[in-house]
Amino acid sequence: MSKKKILTLVVIFVLTLLLIVSLAACCKSNPESDDIDNTITQKDMHEMWLDVQTEMENVWANEEIKVVDLTNLNIGNAKYDIADFGNPIRAIAIDRNPIVIECKDSDLENFKNAKGDFGTNIKKFDVKFTKIENTSIYVSNICSAYNFFTNDIKKVGDAYYSKDETKLIRYIGNSETYEILENTTTIGFGAFANNKNLKSLNISEGVKNIETCAFSGCEKLESVTISSSVENIDSGAFLECSQLSEINIPENSNIEHIGWGALDENASWYQNKLEKETGILYFGKFAYSYLIKGEKNINLDFKEGTKTIAIQFKNYKNIESIKIPSSVTKIEDGAFTAYPTLNSISVDGKNTKYKSAGNCLIETETNTLILGCKNSVIPTDGSVTSIGDSAFYKCDSISNITIPDSVTSIGDKAFYKCSNLSDVITSGSIESVGAQAFKETSWYDNQSNGIIKIGKAIYAYKGEMPEKTSLEIEDGPISISPSAFSNCANLISITIPDSVTSIEDEAFKGCENLTNITLPNNINKIAKGTFEGCLQLNNITISDSVITIESRAFARCENLVNITIPKNIISICEEAFNGCSMLKNINIPAKVDLIGWGAFSDLENLEKITVDSENKYYHVDNNCLVETKMKVLVVIAKNYVIPTDNSVTSIGNYAFSGNKNLTKIIIPDGIVNIGDYAFSAYENLESVTISNSIKVFGKGIFEYCTKLTQINYDGTKADFEAIKKAEGVDNWYDDSSITKVKCTDGEIEINQDL
After folding, report:
1. DSSP three-state, residue 689
2. Is residue 340 included in any domain, yes or no?
3. Is the pTM of the predicted complex or chain greater than 0.90?
4. Which residues have C-beta within 8 Å of that of residue 402, sequence separation ≥ 6?
């Protein structure tokens, strides 16, 4: 690896480390990690936009934007490819950020909650999806994908609009001000981003939505007037607008949502909008944040008329009381989190969405306790049926709590880090307990070693198991909590009764000596990472009740030889069987309509793939598993032959990854796309011949192919240079030994030092 690349990686590592330490953000969710905060910082949003902006520059520079085939779309160096996000949904993504998805209506919300590469939920990016009539296709606002997909675009003066002029897609002018068309209701993603001349703007009446990064990087922007019609200002909308000194919002403003990091806290207008008496920054009826730094004994007293309370109120250590007026209709998830000194919570009795009882904040529609404090007494009148995520998080002063019979679920981190909580009284009605719900409490520390049950939930195994432990759980429990038995190295077998209907994420992850498990007949999924790293697991039977195998469910089960995928499975998610190096056979049932990227990667001993003849989405041809509609080769087994009948046009992400047996690959004519890491970790690969039909090279396609020094290309040097290639730190030849490409008219040197 070159010095330049090493330096780049070092800089990235240092910046990432500083970001994690200082902001605890942009981290992947991990139930065993401490204090992880999955919100996106302003810096993250800005960098995300800059990445997109770079890729879009040459598109916006064109006078005409034409319809493109999104199955093979390239914008700059960003490759659009087929991906999945842990649900039975197909997606076309730009560097894993979804722009077009195909799904059932009922699955759209699941997709929004899926995890993206930033380690947070897609919905946290304020990505919106619009359905194309009479189809199962949804398109997002990212990169104005809707307009590309439908050709619904027109140029008006110095700006691009949707054909009906309701959406301003991109302003490319140089004026100091701009008048938005009167029919416009949406200012699109990055519409004015990085404009170096814009100084003032009047957002006209009728505009309802200001999308992500709409004005990001407008360094000369000084004044903005936002009309009363604006309802949503998305993440990063006014980020890096350092000269912004005035934002005018009318008193009758209807703002309902301002995304995380939407507003630049360093701009002078920020302090000017502060309610001096309460310390709260308001935008009309929207309470955005608390601004007085370092103050002790803070009382959050929201004024009457406030409709929404934003997430920016989390992590204030000196909050002592909260008063919520009757007008509040929405408190964003996590808005009130980590208040160790909070002792009083009150809600106006006329509020129809929330109420307070026993110093608990309760969402009345769902009967969820969303915030508690040291003086909380959970009501016993049935008004609370669940305790929400992080409801009592870091409430150091609470010493005892009684959870009434009406409560059936306790969320993730509900009592996490309540260090003095020593007495917890629960009932048998509790059905599920979230990750780390009682970790780092005195109550947990005082529990005896062994299985800890909370109501009908098996919450955790505490302490070190004796060697060669076999467990048989008695009938009765209905759930096993996330990470309940994770890293129990001495567990060799476990029998789970049919009363259990839910086994949550990573329940048995890292049980490296687990060889035998009897699963219940009533679960509907194998959750994320459930058996990841169970190195000795060699055989498992999955019941027909299961319809989904989630991401990394069996990853690195290195001795898994046989597995029968049941007939009702619909989706096999990303990396589900990654690294199951002894697995010899794969059967794909008739109902499977999604196989995620890398689901069967690094299976070096895979001999045979079969697909039920009634499957409409996948087929096998010469030991190649192919996604039929998109013509994507998903994975290969031994003695494969890539079809040459135009049934395969793309080599999917990780399709050949980790195969240690092959030394030679020939990519036939007709293949136009090679996906990310398609041939990565091919330890013995020495020869590759590629047809000149190839149009796209993904990231790291020959990563760790240490014996491969040359690519044979069946085309001219000019043809090879014309291929769209991943560049930068994750370029197409990254971490390989490739030094040259042999073309029909000469050789191209590959400089690994760049």
Report:
1. strand
2. yes
3. no
4. 377, 378, 425
- What's the CATH code of the domain at 313? 3.80.10.10
- Band (pLDDT 50/70/90 cuts) for residue 335 is confident
Residues 95, 350: Cα–Cα separation, whole Å = 48
Residue 295 reports pLDDT greater than 80: no
Task: Tell me how many helices (H) and strands (E) the chain has.
Answer: 7, 60
Place of tokens 């959050």: 300
User: How far, CA to CA in Å, does 116 sit from each of 91, 123, 562?
Assistant: 12, 10, 31
In Å, what is the CA distance from 166 to each residue of 211, 430, 695? 13, 49, 36
The angle subtended at Cα 195 by Cα 189 and Cα 200, nearest 5°, is 95
Per the domain annotation, does 452 fall within a domain? no
Contact 563, 542 (CB under 8 A): yes
Task: Provide the residue range defining the domain that includes 13.
Answer: 3-37
- With a CB cutoff of 8 Å and minimum separation 6, the contacts of 459 are 433, 437, 438, 452, 453, 481, 484
341-362: pLDDT as tens digits: 899 999 999 999 999 999 999 9
Residue 660: how many CB atoms within 10 A of its CB? Answer: 14
**Helix, strand, coil % (nearest 5) of the chain?**
10, 30, 60
CB-CB contact of 644 with 667 (8 Å): no
In a domain, 348, yes or no: yes
Extract the tokens encoding 41.
């910082």
- 323 assigned to some structural domain: yes
The phi, psi pair for 63, rounded to 5°, reads -70, -30
Q: Are 52 and 68 in contact (CB under 8 A)?
A: no
For 169: left if phi > 0, alpha if psi spans -120 to 50, otherwise beta; the answer is: alpha
- How many whole angstroms separate alpha carbon 623 and alpha carbon 497? 38
**Encoding tokens for residue 558?**
């290195």
Q: Is the pLDDT of residue 274 over 70?
A: no
**pLDDT tens, position by position, 184-197:** 999 987 888 888 89
Is 90 exceeded by the pLDDT of residue 332?
no
CA distance 350 to 669: 71
DSSP letters of 584-597?
Answer: -EEEE-TT--EE-T
| Ramachandran category for residue 397: left, alpha or beta (phi over 0 → left; psi -120 to 50 → alpha) | alpha
What does the block give as tokens for 484? Answer: 């309940």
Residue 111, H or E segment: helix 108-112
Q: How many domains does one find in the chain?
A: 2
Determine the Cα–Cα distance for residues 562 and 554; give it in Å rounded to an integer. Answer: 12
Position 704, amino acid: Y
